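Why show two proteins at once? Because comparison is the fastest way to build intuition. When a single record is shown, students tend to memorize it. When two are placed side by side, the eye starts asking what differs. So, the first record is below.
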Amino acid sequence: MKSLVAVLLLCCPLTLIADQGHQHHFDANEKIGTVHFPISCKGQQAAFERGVALLHTFWYDQAAAQFKEIATKDPSCAIAYWGEAMSIFHQIWDRPNDATLKKGLGMVQQGQKAGAKTQRERDYIDALAVFYRESGYAD
């Protein structure tokens, strides 16, 4: 038992050192890949694609902030609410609880109310609405 504790104590500093380069902000030189996801919101294409790239690299908090900024700048950008709702579903490490499902459903309903300008955007929003509505939370 003592040797197990000693090994664990030795490993802890190594994980802290390994995490020192891990940043929780991005700059112009960020390496998150490229995404092509056309949207109808004027002047928001690059910001939206950055948000989707952040989703695909599991930077959910940063993705949520990116989509929220788009929705703040352009409340009629319905697909931005879809992005926000996508960013609170962390499918790899936890199942959404009732509070998350309720919050996600509210976000996609905002997107539905905003009225997406293309059928493709409406389809994305409506598909996510089904997920949030039928995943256990009764609205």
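Second record. Ask yourself what differs from the first in the token line.
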Amino acid sequence: MAVDSLTLLCAGLLFAASIGGWVLSAPYRAAARLYLRFAAMLFAALAVSAPLSLLADLALFLLPLAACALMIVAFARFAVALPVFAASLALIAGLFCGLAAMLWGAVMLAVVPVILASLAIIGAALQGFAIIAVLAGAALLASGLVLLQQSTAGALLLFAAAALIGLATREKSALAVQH
């Protein structure tokens, strides 16, 4: 299957967002910074898989794991940071669901952790009055729902980029909780 120019452009934008997410994570505490950088690297791998025509398979594996990492970031930034055991369980669950979805071709196994993580991000961001992070959670939810469609690679990449940048940026709103 050939990759079209729109998918290549979206993959380039996700790769640029991954670099930007890495750089923007510098001022955060380690509880948020490390997981944000981990998610940025997972999204960079997702972007690199698009020109290689591996996006459909690797998205099943990488998106649940990246969504769980972004959920840990949202809790660390806007609510109470998850204990190491809970964060490890979330990452293991994302890894297991992604691996099972990739091996068995069951897309719903990959979509369920993305939906749950995005709803947790929205809840944590609402607790911290962070509107941009709420929109980032909605973008992650949309990327999980787009994963159900096989021919919408560009939308998946753009929603993933929006979710990453939305959780990486600091809000300047008076309602936002500054850490």
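One difference worth noting in the second protein: The mean pLDDT is 90.
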